[in-house]
Each structure stands twice: as C-alpha cells, then as structure tokens.
Design goal:
alpha/beta, Quinone Oxidoreductase, Chain A, domain 1, Rossmann fold, 24% strand
C-alpha cells in the first residue's frame, strides 16, 4: 500500500516522503480502515515541523494525520466481525502511535473508528475528529449554553466553525470574530447571530453594542488566548467562562489574576489529546447524532484538490493560513 511518512522533523518539502509500505494488521481491540479521505490539522503540521522546539522523533518513522474517514476492512481479536464493511470517521490515529491516516490503510483502537451515517460523505467524516471534538468540549464542558451569550473568537476556523454551530444548536446567542469578508461569510453560514471583523472594527465596542452596556458575555471560546485575554476578561460577566484551545501568537501569556478573581471568572484549557475517554465518547455521540440529523455544515478547502502525491502542497496550504476550510487529501 502507499503511505506518507517522515523520519525527522522539518518542513513539508524537506521531510515528507511517499512510499510503498506493508499492509498493517489490526491487533487485539483494533480495526483496520481503508482510508478514503485524510484530513490535515494544524497539529499535524506542527508535529511534523517541530513546533516549539519539539524536534525529538517519538518513533523512527511517522505517518502523519490524526483524522480521516473510510471503511473498516479487517478487525483484530475481540472486535465484532460485523464491523467489517462499516463506514467510519477516525480520530487521533497518531496519538501515541506511529501510523496515521495519510496512507491507504491504517489501524486504530476500535472506539476511535466511529460509525459514519449512510448519507454523510467521507469528506465530512474526515472533518470531524480534532476540530469537532474540541468545539464540543469548549462549548459544553462547563454546562448548557441555552439563553447564554457566547463569543467565538475565530468563528471561521476549523474549531470555531463547529463551535458556532454547536452553540447555536444548543440555544445560545452567538457572536463570532473574523479577519476578512470570506471568513465572515463562513461564520454566518455556521449560524453566527453577529459577526465582527476584528481587523476593521473595535471588538469591545461592537460586543457592548450587541449585549448592552450593562450586560456582557457568558462564555468565550478562544483560539488566541494571549492576544485576546484582556478583551475577553473585560467583556465577560461575573462568573463568566473562557474555554481556550490555542495561544499560538503568545505561547506563555500572563494571566491578570486579580482582575479575573474579582469577577469570579473560570478559565478552562481544552486540549483534545488530554481529554478523558468519557469526554471523547460524549463528543463522538454528539457529533454522530448531529451528522445523522444533518445538523452540521462543513467547510472544505480545495475539495478533491490534493492526493497522496500532493501531500507537501496540502501541508503548505494548511500552514499558509490564507485559506478558509479544512484541507483534505483524497486517498481512495
């Protein structure tokens, strides 16, 4: 079978290779999936590139990509043989493992291959995993949001796009921030009630206009924690909550302890890879129900635009930050 791999950290052009590999065999409790679509997440490119000095290879060779979708074609001991032939979406394929979805076949623990509704295509399935699970945790881990005012910073991003949708599905009034018109259109597509372009508008002023000067935000879903912290703290109500899943621009932000304590704010860090099995299962059930009911919209960049032979271009597109939508690789 064909598989992409790298043996050292570096740029996509420097380290990604495509070669023939032996077909993996599922071990006890695992399934083997014939991958149809592999998704490129920012965490995939960061891991390959040695983000924040993480240059040590945990395995001699790594086939990248956490997420994907395909069909189970073999099962290991202890797995119901009836799962063979089941369409599935796959998540966290390379968490603590060397072999991800950027290959014609991969193996994962069976609970990480989640049944895909018949009417849901593989492209949509590959978009789930890390982004949708992170969004679910950010929006709902701290209780219901019905009747709440939720600000989603980066509402057109991979996580933000689903966070907007989940918050709306759960009955919140949703405000989303974006940086350009193309993103604004996507945030509105996701269901945002209000969209703020933080490059051309004053976010604090606009939020106050929307919520009322004596009101404020109940929740913030945050993609740029260090950059936006002061604004978030100022806009949140007493007992408000920040759920943050990234802080790329400022890696070690300073927390205004006394200001946050005075308002009784809650700061919830969300890292999908550190979530409990229970949290993962809850997210998987929610996502599957939403797919089954056709409640989710999806945004894909260059649908059918990349193949395994074009994996370098796919990684570079993900890193460019100039596009809107999930980068997908058509495997089979």
């Amino acid at each position: 079978m064909k598989a992409v791999y790298y043996e050292t950290k570096g740029t996509a052009q420097q380290v990604l290779q495509l070669a023939e590999r032996d077909l993996p065999e599922p071990q006890a409790g695992e399934v083997r999936v014939r991958i149809h679509v592999s998704a490129v997440n920012p965490s995939d490119t960061k891991s390959r590139g040695g983000y924040r000095g993480q240059v040590t290879m945990p395995f001699p060779q790594i086939t990248p990509h956490q997420d994907g979708a395909g069909v189970i074609d073999a099962v290991g001991a202890g797995v119901d043989a009836a799962r063979v032939g089941q369409r599935v979406w796959v998540y966290e394929a390379t968490l603590g493992r060397a072999f991800g979805t950027c290959a014609e076949y991969t193996t994962v623990p069976e609970h990480k291959a989640v049944a895909l509704p018949d009417h849901t295509d593989f492209e949509a399935g590959a978009c789930m995993g890390i982004p949708a699970m992170t969004a679910h945790r950010c929006v709902l881990a701290d209780g219901p949001v019905r009747g709440k005012i939720v600000l989603v910073q980066g509402g057109a991003g991979a996580v933000g796009f689903y966070a907007v949708q989940i918050a709306k599905l759960e009955g919140a009034l949703v405000i989303a921030t974006v940086s350009r018109d193309e993103q604004a259109a996507q945030a509105r597509l996701a269901g945002a009630d209000h969209v703020i372009n933080y490059k051309t508008e004053n976010v604090s002023q606009r939020v106050k206009e929307i919520t009322g000067l004596d009101s404020g935000l109940d929740r913030v879903i945050e993609v740029a924690f260090g950059v936006n912290l002061a604004t978030d703290v100022a806009l949140l109500k007493t007992d408000g909550i920040i759920a943050s899943y990234a802080s790329d621009a400022i890696h070690e932000p300073t927390v205004p302890f006394w200001t946050m304590m005075a308002k009784g704010l809650v700061l919830h860090f969300v890292l999908v890879y550190a979530m409990s099995r229970q949290a993962h299962d809850e997210a998987a059930r929610y996502i599957t129900d939403a797919l089954q009911a056709k409640r989710f919209k999806h945004q894909v960049f260059a649908r059918y635009g990349f193949t395994l032979d074009e994996v370098v271009a796919a990684h570079e597109a993900t890193e460019s930050m100039s596009h809107v939508g999930k980068v997908l690789i058509q495997v089979g």
